[in-house]
Amino acid sequence: MLDLSHLRADFPILDRQVHGKPLVYLDSAATTQKPVQVLDAMDDYYRHHNANVHRGAYTMAEEATELYEGARRRVARFINAAAPEEVVFTRGTTSAINAVAYGWGLHHLQPGDRIALTTMEHHANIVPWQLVARVTGAELTYLPLTADFRVDVGAIGDVIDSRVKIVAFSGMSNVLGTIGPLAEAVAAARAVGAISVIDAAQLVPHHPTDVRAIGADFLAFSAHKMLGPTGVGALWGRRDRFEEMEPAEGGGEMIRDVQLHSSTWADLPHKFEAGTPPIAEAVGFGAAVDYLEAVGMDRVRDHEREITRYALDRLAEIPDLTVYGPDDTAQRGGAVSFTLADIHPHDLATILDQSGVAVRAGHHCAKPLMRVLDVPATARASFYLYNVPGEVDVLVAALHEARRLFGVA
Ligand code: PLP
Predict the structure, then answer these.
(1) Are 233 and 376 contained in the same domain?
(2) Are 333 and 202 within 8 A, CB to CB?
(3) Residues 107, 225 within the same domain
(4) Mean pLDDT, to the nearest integer, of 195-209?
(5) Distance 401 CA to ligand 1 centre (A)
(6) 115 located within any domain
(7) Measuring CA to CA, which residue among 312, 311, 315, 303 is closest to residue 384?
(8) Which candidate among 249, 293, 327, 355 keeps its CA 20 to 30 Å from the CA of 267?
(9) Which residue, judged by its Cα, is nearest atom 14 of ligand 1?
(10) CATH number of the domain enclosing 105
(11) Do 70 and 17 share a structural domain?
């Protein structure tokens, strides 16, 4: 197995104990741990360069602006954007998708138009569209899943027709791990003149991502899921789409001119960044991207495929355990959802915590998907570049212990 265990030394939190046991952190789909390189970059910014950006003519303000814009250039390069202006800093994936829903959807949808999603979406890629549909009279329509937890590409022709104006789908499911049919969905959207929006909250952190190769119109992701801080994320958009999009938020920094009764907008990307942006967070985001680039996203992906394969094989040894998601690691990432007999996932997570194992339990902000799976909740172990096979072994041992404690026959 590709050994990235030396990287663990960069993550101070991985040394801590929980209930007297070494922490086994298996919740990176919710948020990732931060390497010292990210912590240091943010600390250095606050200690030595803290000033507001884009405003001052003094040295520190210029330094802060350069750090902030440098982070934008790094993030743009990381996803192979054509230019840094195609990257708008947001608060995260959720606010990026809302920016498109309110900035593009609100101004382009009419009664009878459709927004096509899939049934495996996170609420962040459902609720903003419902809100905008309510105002515009548009309707939501959904691509179903196959029995083996993939998006049913065979249904694309039935669902994505000429009424569809927006196709919004996740690049990788936070519950099933399923990698979305990017090429097929983007092509189907284009064929009917719809725009495509990718919720890449789980894709960009775990899979090499080339926005020019994917060919979508918008792509959203969060720094905190890729070793960076909370409070910042990015919306990548094609320049022409950004040009035809209205700002969803108004305020300082995003205007060219303000008159008493009207305003004009600043150029990209500032048009979509109203108010003081999350400067230190963007600096941390840039450092996170540097870190991932130094490791290499191909290696991150390979490592995750290997550890996910190992986890799926070891979980298959446990009687009464059901995994929800594709088995083929070519089609999935490292979010592994499961249930164990009739033990409630919350109880399971509490038991695992006693062994130092951090997993998430619940509906994972994907209630429609829970209904498709016919379960109220699942437990979810999710892996990242710092996880090692020994941690899977601790998880499996703790699951056996849970069976014993709950008297599962
Ligand atoms: N989309 C997916 C697939 C996610 O996994 C998440 C976070 O869990 C989000 C969207 C929302 O991300 P954020 O809370 O960072 O805005």
Answers:
(1) no
(2) yes
(3) yes
(4) 98
(5) 31
(6) yes
(7) 303
(8) 293
(9) 94
(10) 3.40.640.10
(11) no
Is 258 tagged catalytic?
no
Residue where one domain finishes, among candidates 293, 321, 346: 293
Instruction: Report the atom number in ligand 1 closest to the C-alpha of 96.
Output: 16
- What's the gap in Å between 128 CA and the centre of ligand 1? 13
Q: What is the mean pLDDT of residues 126-154?
A: 98
Query: In the chain, how many domains are there?
Result: 2
Q: Is 26 helix (H, G, I), strand (E, B) or coil?
A: coil
The 10s digit of each residue's pLDDT in 387-404 is 999 999 999 999 999 999
The answer to whether residues 197 and 331 belong to one domain is no
Q: State whether the beta carbon of 27 lies less than 6 angstroms from ligand 1.
A: no
Q: What percent of the chain has pLDDT over 90?
A: 98
Find the 199 Cα to ligand 1 centroid distance in Å.
8
Specify the 3-state DSSP secondary structure of 8: helix
Give residue 2's pLDDT band: very low, low, confident or very high (50, 70, 90).
confident
**Is the same domain home to 303 and 188?**
no
Q: Which atom of ligand 1 is nearest to the CA of 92?
A: 16
Q: Give kind and range of the element (H or E) at residue 185.
A: helix 182-191
pLDDT at residue 367 tops 80: yes
For ligand 1, whether the C-beta of 378 sits within 6 Å is no
* Type of residue found at 401: E
Same domain, 289 and 373: no
For residue range 308-338, list pLDDT tens digits in order: 999 999 999 999 999 999 999 999 999 999 9
Query: With contact defined as beta carbons under 8 Å apart, do 71 and 78 qualify?
Result: no
Residues 177 and 214 in one domain: yes
**Catalytic position from the list 127, 153, 341, 365:** 365
Q: Alpha helix locations (H) across 215-344?
A: 239-243, 279-295, 297-315
The residue to mutate among 127, 365, 380, having the most atoms of ligand 1 within 8 angstroms of its beta carbon, is: 365
pTM of the model: 0.98
**Structural domain span for residue 192:** 49-293
Indicate if 246 and 366 belong to the same structural domain.
no
Tokens linked to 377: 């909740």
Least confident of 50-59, 163-172, 230-239, 334-343: 50-59
